[in-house]
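Field: COMPLEX_INPUT
Field: COMPONENT_COUNT = three
Field: RESIDUE_TOTAL = 594
Field: MODE = joint
Values follow.
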Amino acid sequence: MKLRETNVGRSIFRSPDRKTERDRAAGHWSSFLLHIYPVKVRREELHFRYSWYLGVASTVLLASLVVSGVYLMFFYVPSPTTAYGDMQTIQTEVAFGQFIRNVHRWSAHLMVITVAAHMARVFYRGAYKPPREFNWVIGVFLLILTLLLSFTGYLLPWDQLAYWAVTVGTSMADFVPFIGGSAREVLVGGDQVGAATLIRFYVLHVALLPLIMVAFLLVHLWRWRKDAMLDQERPGMGLGPHAGEEGGVGAPPGSGKQGGGE
Amino acid sequence: MSDTDPREVEGKRLLGIVPGQPATGERKVPEEQDLVTVWPHLLVRHAVVGVAVLLFVLILGILFDAPLREVANPFETPNPEKAPWYFAALQELLSHFHPLVAGVLVPGAVIVGMIALPYIDRNPAARPALRKVAVVVFTSFLVVWILLTLIGFAFRGENWGWVWPWDEWHGEL
Amino acid sequence: MDRRRFLSVGWKLGAVAIGCAGAWTSWDLLRPLPGSGLGGLIKTVPPDEVPAHTTIYVRSAQTYLTRIEDEIVALWQKCPHLGCRVAWCEGSGEFECPCHGSTFNRAGEVRSGPAPRGMDRFVVAETDGVIQVDTGTVVRGQPAGSPESIDEPPRDGSC
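Field: COMPLEX_OUTPUT
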């Protein structure tokens, strides 16, 4: 007997047996995990050449970064006296430490590439055009956040590579008119990169920036889900003044209140 | 609408009124879209891509070790000193122009330009052939940025002097 | 202004005010405490140990000491461009920055590269027979393009 046909299964999935496509849509609609997806998408979105699946790749890399990053946090103390030693311990003594660190590092580099490539692909597809302008703007912020996360993480090993790259990076702030000098001081926590900088970058890297990142990502996905069925370059669909509004002319059948599973 | 709904107009049931549109007569019938259900069509593909990406990262992690140089030393700047590769283009710019230009104005303009892009480019066409200006501008920016990144990452050696990557390698990930 | 409009504008202004107060407070909390930098007077070497045609490095003050026209000058190691440590190169008789290739002459004036001004100096004074460097007082270098105060062309043999 299948789990979803038992009393317990029904209480979990709350969906009818999958007999028709409508049942399947209903099951999708009542699933918490699937609610970040629309119920239906345009067929062309399935093709590899449509998106190259770069958005999915970026999201998966973010997940890999969160998992490997949390593992590394168990073995790392952000202080100039301990940080470098902890890195050596991670690489030599911690079980799978070197491997997890590698995965974290390469995921971060790859994520910068996939996020940038995702933006380029969206540009050439013209997918930033109305009504998707605002999602593009959120995407720009996500790219900036990716770079900031990479940069703050770069300091944490406290080796020569880290120390001087961050010295150069933060010194750039000095040249911003009016607020530059104090912005650099707030970021660095002193005249030069030191203990205060390390703890600041650590907090930014493991708490503040990831939270902001996830918040922006959720809005990004939500906008994608809302717009997933809107077509482009068709009169009255996706480009007209009433496109996407409920009941507006050109709204596809089923995008209203009752239909479409929305 | 009053509470006598639904009412009939010219023999048709009136369900709603869209401003500027006739209640009866010729209405645009939207083209039927070619839609597929996300489960299973899109989800299966996403799962495959996700597993493939993870596998790729795991293999990279087994094959290559992340670099760790000597402990940070404020009295010794390594030569050459390189920013992470994604800032190599900026560092290359910084070696040519005043920091206010290369470190603040250029990146600021790039970010503002990217954010403003969908509001500047109001051409509704999606196909690249119908929006040559946007495509040319964006592509040239992309090419310049990738070139600068490559130069800063691989073609710079001691004191930020020019080197050929096959003679001396100074790139570090 | 009627009551409805007053309330509508009022709560928005209130929210903005709270936001500004929060931002200002956090900004101020995150400013480094005074004296957290290098700071203070640092005793170095007797004046006659400071050379005239080369430099000596004082690690505790992160400073190069040299003599320009019989006057002792303390040059901070931090590159005025982006903060890398500028190294003295005996071979060329110049300061060279490894990050973006700026070069400075022995007096810390810009010769080439992207540095916007010469190397910063500290105020020096002689007390009890040793040179004291006041790392709390930074004198900013001359802007790039100013004429050089010493005539020492670079030698061959850059580092």
